[in-house]
Specification:
Elements: E1 8-14, E2 17-23, E3 31-36, E4 41-46, E5 49-54, H1 61-64, E6 74-77, E7 82-88
Antiparallel strand pairs: 1-2, 1-7, 3-4, 4-5, 6-7
C-alpha cells in the first residue's frame, strides 16, 4: 500500500447501509460498482485505493476528490447519499451520522 499503510478496507455506503466492503489487498483487478442509480454514481475500487469516477450530480465534488489511498480518507456524493471510505481493516466505527 502507498504510504506504508497495510490492511486497508474500502467501505461504500448508500445512506447508512453498507453496500460494499472489502479489503483492498483482496482486489486483484479494478472493480466498478454502481452505488446509486438515480445519480448514476460509479465507484472504482483498486488494490491501491478507491474513487468516485462518475456522478450525474450538479457539483461533481465527489468526482473531483480523486483517488483516496489512506486510512480515514473519504469521498462523498451528498446528493446521492453515497460515501466511499478507507479505513484500517481492524478499525472500529467511532461515530455514524445520518
Amino acid at each position: 500500500m502507498s504510504g506504508g499503510e497495510e490492511n486497508l478496507r474500502v467501505v461504500v455506503r448508500k445512506d447508512s447501509d453498507i453496500i460494499y466492503s472489502k479489503s483492498l489487498s483482496d482486489i486483484k483487478s479494478p472493480i466498478e460498482i454502481c452505488a446509486d442509480e438515480e445519480y448514476n454514481v460509479k465507484v472504482l475500487l483498486m488494490s491501491d485505493g478507491a474513487e468516485i469516477v462518475h456522478s450525474e450530480c450538479v457539483d461533481r465534488i465527489c468526482v473531483n476528490t480523486g483517488k483516496i489511498t489512506h486510512s480515514g480518507q473519504a469521498a462523498v456524493c451528498l446528493p446521492a447519499h453515497v460515501s466511499v471510505e478507507l479505513r484500517g481493516d481492524n478499525s472500529e466505527i467511532d461515530v455514524m451520522v445520518g
